[in-house]
Structures are given as structure tokens and as C-alpha cells.
Amino acid sequence: MKRVLVTGASGFIGNACIDVLVEKSQYEIHATSTRPMNGPKQNVFWHQLDLHDHLATRKLLVQVKPTHLLHLAWYPVQGKIWSSEENRKWVETSYNLLKAFSLSGGRRCITAGSCAEYSWTREHCREDKTPLESASVYGKSKNALHSMQKSFCKEAGLSCAWGRVFYLYGPREPQQKLTSSVILSLLERKQAKCSHGNQIRDYLFVQDAATAFIALLESDVVGAVNIASGKPLALKEIILKVADRLDGYDLIQFGALTPAENEPEVIVADIHRLSKEVGWKPEYSLDRGLDLTIEWCRKQLDSKA
């Protein structure tokens, strides 16, 4: 049986990936989290671990001996991630994890990258064409780790791929993010302050992102692969769909927030590799994904009442 180790398993993407893996029978699933996780999901071995503790990480890898690694953990603080020096710390930590994985007999690893690695233009971001010229510390750090991973895996004989994540939404999305912030504001009958909403982005439901990561893990595809929908979407379309569902048009304040300086007009992925080489396709429409996200947010508010 294959043994997969998932880092960042209690996070936004990690939770969804665990859900997908649990449905499969060919994996013994091991998951790491910095906080205690007392069996929130069946058939998962949870390990409380600070990945920055390299000795503890090596001990866990020796103990588990995973054949597959899905590395999703990174600096999680929204609003600070773009410029924090913690990003550079995660490059070192991730590289040490990769070495420990190799020494423990690992065979294939998948690491989560980001669309922030690209030089953003109006064209679709393509793995073999779009320049990797990030303006942020976050993007530069991800690029550095990807380069290190490629070199190390080639020397160590490991099979590896790099999933560049674009924009996601869905249950457990951080509350500061667009979709969840608008939903929660309207559910509480508060004003939802938004920018003009004309920015074009590539949004994917988190469960679809999870199936994409697991499909990539199970494939033989190597190198960078965009994890995205490949479909351009104006932010205002998401906002208005949420408003329609929650009878909240009067609560939407377009233009209340000023977009960041030099914010690109368009960030959309080319997903040829993901769809053609990995063989993945999405299961959720935007409408279905928003319905499920609203349902989850409503339950969260009800539980706090």
C-alpha cells in the first residue's frame, strides 16, 4: 500500500485533499498539523509537528517512511504573506523536508506553488512560456524552492511536480478572502466593502483543487503544473452571484476599497498540462461551489450563535 504524507493538512487546501484521499483505498494517509488533531477524519494518522523543527521532521519521516509526499504547508498569515521574511524560512524548511523524504525512501513528491511566481500579463499564465519574475517576497521564495526542488530531485532520482495554485474559494476559506468576506457580511446583514470588481481572475472551487492535486500526485507528470480553472472571471460576477443568493444587493459597496497599487487587470491560467497531461477536469460549477460555500459559512455562524 502507498503511504502518503500531507503537510498543512488542517489548512484550507489540506482539508480538501484529505477528503479526497480518504475516499481512495490505496493510501495509508499520514497528515501533519501544528495543532492537535484528534481524529477529525477517519482512516487518517495525524501527527502534531512543527516542520521548522528539522530533527523532529526527520524522525517522523523515518517512522512513517512515506512513499508519496504532498507538501502544502507554508506561512499562513493572510495580509502579511506577500512581504514576510517567514517565506524565506519556509524555503529552508521545505528543502529539509524534501531531503528527509528522500532519505526515508520516498518516491514521488508534489509541492504547492503559486500564481504569484509568474510575471503577470494580460495573457494566460503558461508553465513553459510566462516569465517567472515575481515582485513579491512570497513569489520569489516559491520560485527559489521550485528551482531547488528540481535540482535536488534530479540528483536524488525522485519523481516530483510543482502545483501552481491560482485563486481558490470554498469551505474553510480564510475570512479575509473575497468570497467568504462577502458571504459573511451579507449573512450578518452588514455592508460588504469591495473594490470596483473589474479585475479578471481565475477562480477554482477548493474541492476541485484537491482532486487536481491528487490526480497530479498519482500521475507521472513532472515539473510545474497550473492548478486552476483556466476561465477568466470578473470579481464582480462572484460578488453579484453571492448578493443574488442572499438578497444583499443593497449591502454591496463597489468602489469602497482601493485596489493595491500596480494590481494587474488579468491573472488567468493556461491549464493544458493539467487537463491534457494529468487528465483532470473540474466537477463543480461556480454556482454549485458558491452554494456550498454559503452553506458552510451559514453553519459556522449558526454554531457561534
What would you say this structure looks like, in words?
- With 305 residues, this protein is of the alpha/beta class.
- 39% of the residues lie in helices and 19% in strands.
- It is built from nine helices and 14 strands.
- A seven-stranded parallel beta sheet has the order 3-2-1-4-5-6-11, with helices on both faces.
- β4 (68-71), α3 and β5 form a beta-alpha-beta unit.
- α2 packs parallel to α3 (86-103), α3 (86-103) packs parallel to α4 and α7 crosses α9 (286-304).
- The longest helix is centred in the middle third of the chain and has 20 residues, at 137-156.
- The protein is globular.
- The termini are far apart.
- The mean pLDDT is 95.
Which terms would index this structure?
305 residues, alpha/beta, Rossmann fold, UDP-galactose 4-epimerase, domain 1, 2 domains, seven-stranded parallel beta sheet, 9 helices, 39% helix
Could you give the order of the helices and strands?
Answer: EHEEHEHEHEEHEEEHEEHEEHH
Rg of Cα set: 19 Å
CATH fold annotation of the largest domain:
Rossmann fold
CATH architecture of the largest domain: 3-Layer(aba) Sandwich
